[in-house]
């Protein structure tokens, strides 16, 4: 009976973590370029249950032989293994702001390949994002809304000097200060990218991201004055949140049922009269 506690408790913890992931998706439904997290579940390893007993052999020496009989397997519950970003392009909307850029995917040679803007985080490391909600800081550099520098194809900071600049479909930045190519990175397996917060991704795979313009078969378009929306579906997310809540309640009722059974076994069946 105690195993039932563990199984139901594991189910409650898994659904609680799933609710947290869904809530994070819902809170970023309006974040440009946000990629929804898909939660994966796994079952704990099954255990083989055996009945251990012994029987006596009526001999002069009183032999006692052990005997084990397999009863069957038992599952000990599930757990939420990880959250995997859904790398799917969101809808593109027009904003009319010159600092807003949207990455529009074209033909990609691999099904799991994806495109990113290249930026620099506060530690000076290369990171990647799909959030093109850029701005120009006081020094004239193109940055993200969180202050991370946007990089060009050579991983140098882009200085436009003003918000009055033009960006071609190929990603060429034309400004009174300088002309350069905005960094567009391609990676054949986007699942190697891990979220770091502030809508940034880090490449934790063994394969480095490459310049999308130099990769054969990769086509894209940079649209100025537009933003890629989050790929979170609020309707589907709300439905999943309700389903997860119901599953949590079911496991909660199982725990209450076991608790009532234990109460009867301990306080009524075993009562001395």
TrEMBL record:
The keyword Zinc-finger does not apply. Residues 223-267 form the Flagellar basal-body/hook protein C-terminal domain. InterPro entries: Flag_bb_rod_N, Flagellar_FlgE/F/G, Flg_bb/hook_C_dom, FlgE/F/G-like, LlgE_F_G-like_D1. Residues 6-35 form the Flagellar basal body rod protein N-terminal domain. It comes from the Bacteria. The keyword Flavoprotein does not apply. Keywords: Bacterial flagellum, Cell projection, Cilium, Flagellum. Transmembrane segments: none annotated. GO terms for cellular component: bacterial-type flagellum basal body. GO terms for biological process: bacterial-type flagellum-dependent swarming motility. Residues 116-173 form the Flagellar hook protein FlgE/F/G-like D1 domain. It is found in: Bacterial flagellum basal body. Coiled coil: none annotated. Belongs to the flagella basal body rod proteins family. This is Flagellar basal-body rod protein FlgG. It comes from Tenuibacillus multivorans.
